[in-house]
Design brief:
Length: 428
């Protein structure tokens, strides 16, 4: 491992937190490069579960440096609450273990308010955001009116930017959405206090990262969300506001593409998604309910029930191409145990023709009917499997199909939520 990126190869919630935590053992630096606290990772170590939202999964190790990159949008209140939560769980979070980019944009109260009000105004056409202000913060970033972490440490600059933004946002909140205006003084005082508490963590992380790579340290890049939620390559507009794909690393962390040597795509042995938008293999019957309950498919951040369906290999092949995946990590294989017949989507029927690509148009995707290949299931529990040889033969056939269709080797298989329930098939 030198520069390895871990991405979600579906609609997010694939188990990236567990895989990142597992791979972090062999890394020295772990970097989060996009998204915000709208994403969540649940990591289980021995008998404890940790729920992470902004802090990289490597924080659970005492000897790793964790970096929150410039591509992440930061809610200071949420970050401080997460740090307090981790400290309460016995996990040390110090400036020696965690650094935050001074170029990262800051989520402000008006971002969260506008997020909620705009979703409400959309009515039945809502996108299904988490309401945490992520999209509006990225909007300000690209509109060049955003506030960055570095601005918090130049009080006159912060004061002027906040005044300008409050004036504009209050007009939007009051005149467009019929909401209540925000107080400049309250927000200013609140964020000055956050700045004081976070000051020792804030640095130029691109320099730290560059020096780490140049000195030969092993770096692990951790993505949030998944390929099908990418702002360009996902099911737009039902997407996030950043780039979860491997290409997002360079911009979101401040490194050149030559510093990334491997891209690991994490995917479940089936498919899930949260929120609205087309989902060709979604199951609306008892099987979908069975997978949801057995796999405990509920959001870490929101608690929302996830939509569940059979594994979609068209999506997985698309993700492999978009991110240049060098290996796959298959999670929750154990959830499919004790199912007699397991289906896998190998193509879409669109207007009477079978296609093997992922359409850009949601209208076209919505008309796609999955073409399935059926596999015999396995009735033995695989949760205690330690090696690939320990797995039931039918599950091996299932994994082989994934490799053949995508053209990407399966390197890791997860057979349970705990760190030790992870099988390494091929070393990276």
């Amino acid at each position: 491992m030198s520069g390895v990126v871990v991405i979600g190869a579906q609609w997010g919630d694939e188990g990236k937190g567990k895989i990142t935590d597992f791979l972090a053992e062999g890394a020295e630096v772990v970097v989060r490069y996009q998204g915000g606290n709208n994403a969540g990772h649940t990591v289980e170590v021995e008998d404890k579960k940790y729920k992470l939202h902004l802090v990289p999964s490597g924080i659970l190790y005492d000897d790793k440096l964790c970096i929150i990159g410039n591509g992440v949008v930061i809610d200071p209140k949420a970050l401080l609450e997460e740090i307090e939560y981790l400290e309460g769980e016995g996990v040390k979070v110090t400036p020696e273990k965690l650094v935050i980019s001074d170029r990262a944009h800051v989520i402000m109260p008006y971002h969260k308010i506008i997020d909620g009000l705009s979703e409400k105004k959309r009515g039945k056409s809502d996108i299904g955001t988490t309401g945490k202000g992520i999209g509006p913060c990225y909007t300000d970033k690209h509109e060049r009116s955003g506030i960055r972490m570095c601005d918090l440490y130049h009080e006159d600059v912060f004061k002027e930017k906040l005044k300008q933004n409050i004036e504009v946002k209050n007009r939007i909140i009051c005149e467009i959405y019929d909401g209540e205006p925000l107080s400049f003084d309250n927000i200013y005082d609140e964020y000055m206090e956050y700045a004081k508490r976070l000051k020792d963590f804030v640095v130029d992380t691109s320099v730290v990262l560059y020096d780490s790579i140049k000195s030969g340290k092993k770096v692990l890049f951790e993505g949030a969300q998944g390929t099908l939620l990418d702002i360009d390559y996902g099911t737009y507009p039902y997407v996030t506001s950043s780039h979860p794909i491997s290409g997002g690393v360079c911009i979101g962390a401040g490194v050149g593409p030559t510093m990334i040597t491997n891209a690991v795509g994490v995917c479940k042995a089936y498919t899930t998604r949260v929120g609205k938008g087309p989902f060709p293999t979604e199951l609306f019957d008892g099987m979908g309910d069975y997978i949801r309950e057995k796999g405990f498919e509920y959001g870490t951040t929101t608690g929302r029930a996830r939509r569940c369906g059979w594994l979609d290999l068209v999506i997985l092949k698309y993700a492999a191409r978009i991110s240049g995946l060098t290996s796959l990590a298959i999670t929750k294989l154990d959830t499919l145990s004790n199912i007699d017949k397991i289906k896998v989507c190998t193509g879409y029927e669109l207007d009477g023709k079978v296609i093997d690509y992922f359409p850009a148009s949601l209208e076209d995707l919505g008309r796609c009917k999955p073409v399935y290949e059926e596999f015999d299931g396995w009735d033995s529990s695989i949760e205690k499997a330690k090696t690939f040889e320990d797995l039931p033969q039918n599950s091996k056939i299932y994994l082989k199909k994934i490799e053949e269709f995508t053209g990407v080797k399966v390197s890791i298989v997860s057979v349970g939520p705990a760190r030790h329930q992870t099988i390494v098939i091929n070393k990276m």
